[in-house]
Each structure stands twice: as C-alpha cells, then as structure tokens.
Amino acid sequence: MNYYFNKTLNEDFDKVMEKVTEELKKEGFGILTEINVNETLKKKLDVDFRRYQILGACNPPFAHKALEAEDKIGTMLPCNVIVQQKNETTVEVAAINPLASMQAVENEKLNDVANEITERLKNVVNRLK
C-alpha cells in the first residue's frame, strides 16, 4: 500500500494551489498550516529549492472522531498534501494515504475514520485536472 496518492498536472503552480484548496474545501477540509519549503530552505540554509508547499489539511468532524478514538492520533494530524514543481511545465500534487499511516496504530475504532478520510483525499487528487 502506497503511503500517498498523487497526480501530475501540466498547469501553473499557483493555479494548482488554488484548485487543490478548492477541492479540499469541497471534501470538508480546511487548511490549518501552509509551509513554503523553498522559502524556508532559502532563509534557513541559503539553498535554492523548487517550489514546494506543504498544506496541513483538516476535516474537523473526522479529526474529532479520530481524537475521541485515540488520544495520541494528533501526532499524525493534520493530513498533509504537497504541491511541488516537478519541472518547468508540470506540478505534482500528493496527499497522504491515511489508511497506510493508520496501520501503525492498532485501534479498530479508527478504521471507519481512516477509510472515510482516505476516500475524501483520493477524491481531491482524482478531481484535479
């Protein structure tokens, strides 16, 4: 089982970011954190790196269910989605596969939540065009 789902698009980076954010909203996710990796690496290490954003996405009702079922699950939240420039014309979007990460947690109460979030994140990635 892959630990992520991904899709590569021939699209402008900023437009892909807009599309990803819009698709996440359609599935009930908000963006809690946004990490601009290339800016951070430039600032902290003075290295040039491709455009790379990490979006910390959260679906509050499902996050609440997961936290109720397993109090340490917050170590795996929020669900990360990355947008990265692969070359001049392509941008890749990848989202974590919650089912893969939840396998490490031996708690059957999380199965339904993990399945639902997995389907919603797959929907986000699959609808990108």
TrEMBL record:
Gene3D superfamilies: TT1751-like domain (3.30.310.70). Residues 35-98 form the DUF302 domain. It comes from the Bacteria. PANTHER family: SLR5037 PROTEIN (PTHR38342:SF1). This is DUF302 domain-containing protein. It comes from Nonlabens spongiae.
